[in-house]
Amino acid sequence: MKIRIKLVAHAGKPVAGIGSDGEGELYVPDGATVGDVMARLDVARETLTMTLVNDEVVRPALHDAHVLAAGDLLTVFPPIEGG
Asked: How far apart are CA 37 and CA 27, in angstroms?
């Protein structure tokens, strides 16, 4: 199935299917979870990120339980640093 991705201020390795603007589409297997996609995007579990599915927050503790549906928009924000 196809989902939409938006990586806000992504500084990691380039991801096939994701443009330089951080937006794109990924094909994932039926039953894929937020955790599955985060692993594919190479976002470390220890990294505190904010994730949204269709503008609803999904807490890190629920990443492995939140099953995605075709057409979902997964938005990933990196940790905010600075001062």
From this structure: 10
Q: pLDDT tens track of the chain, all 83 residues? A: 999 999 887 666 677 778 888 899 999 999 999 999 988 877 655 566 789 999 999 998 999 999 999 999 999 887 666 55
pTM for this prediction: 0.85
Domain ranges of the chain: 2-77
User: Could you tell me if 48 and 60 are in contact, meaning their C-beta atoms sit under 8 angstroms apart?
Assistant: yes
CATH class of 2-77: alpha beta
**CA 23 to CA 21: how far, in whole Å?**
6
The size of the chain, in residues, is: 83
